[in-house]
Design brief:
By secondary structure, the protein is mostly beta strands. The chain has two helices and 22 strands. The strands form five sheets. Strands 10, 13, 15, 16, 17, 19, 21 and 22 form an eight-stranded antiparallel beta sheet that branches.
Length: 271
């Protein structure tokens, strides 16, 4: 991530509190803010977690509005107010055919029950607000290969419009290793989710989590601490998929982010 902004004070003549913002100020982007220890931060009036060192996270979803209001109350009693301009994006349309109809339009009660249970487990992880700042390790690609699906694309599955794609698909060879994209704690391990098959989620702190799905094998256990690059699974073809690949997603609570913006250019792979 890049970019550095130094904020100003709203009160004339006051001594400026410190504030930096580093990241992608665009739809799907994540920004890591840094103020003083003890600062209080709100985004559009909602308070967010600030670490003991003064770090905090701001996430912009796929359809984030053009302007977000940031307010920082500094420990010295001064206040910084800033309007963050969020750059818009244009999204692709992706058509995928050949999926089992059962996994595009599920109707069986047992399938619907599984989907509800899976969604509840995923939602529980996305509610976590741990105080760790593992996100400070930075992010890397968890696998390498052609990109077969991008963040935010409008998806048409077997001719039926569905929700936009909330992550990125990496067509890595079946059997290749999936690694943790950043430091964190394994918050969910599931051997067979209806849509995503073998699934792992990692908590990176402050509500930031990552998900890795469609794997053939899982190499970690729930609660395990991992560092960036730790092997966590094997690329596969489980769940709703037409071929082997890794779906990788990153969310700040319920807000889906673009993993490619976090990881930057994929190294050691020629497109």
């Amino acid at each position: 991530m890049g970019g550095l902004l130094v904020a100003w004070l709203s009160a004339p003549g006051a001594i400026a509190g410190t504030l930096t913002l580093d990241g992608n100020m665009t739809q799907g982007g994540l920004v890591i803010g840094k103020a003083e220890a003890g600062a209080r931060v709100t985004i559009d009036g909602t308070a967010i977690r600030v670490s003991e060192a003064g770090a905090f996270l701001i996430g912009f979803g796929r359809d984030a509005k053009p302007v977000v209001r940031l307010r920082v109350d500094h420990p010295d009693g001064t206040r910084t107010v800033k309007a963050l301009n969020v750059a818009p994006r244009t999204y692709q349309v992706q058509r995928i055919d050949g999926l089992p109809s059962r996994q595009v339009t599920p109707t069986k009660p047992e399938d619907l029950k599984r989907i509800r249970q899976d969604n509840a487990r995923i939602a529980a992880v996305r509610k976590l607000d741990s105080g760790r700042s593992d996100f400070a390790s930075g992010f890397q690609w968890p696998a390498t290969g052609p990109i077969s699906g991008v963040f935010g694309s409008r998806r048409i599955l077997n001719g039926k419009p569905r929700n936009p794609h909330n992550g990125i698909d990496i067509a890595a060879p079946r059997g290749s290793t999936v690694t943790a994209a950043a430091d964190g704690t394994v918050a969910l391990v599931h051997p067979d989710m209806f849509f995503t098959g073998k699934t792992v989620m990692i908590d990176h702190g402050h509500g930031l989590s990552s998900v890795y799905v469609h794997m053939d094998e899982i190499l970690v256990s729930q609660g395990q601490r991992v560092t960036k690059g730790t092997p966590i699974g094997i690329v596969g073809k489980t769940g709703r998929t037409t071929g082997p690949h890794l779906h990788w997603g990153v969310s700040l609570f319920k807000t889906h982010l673009d993993p490619a913006l976090l990881a930057g250019r994929m190294k050691n792979f020629s497109r």
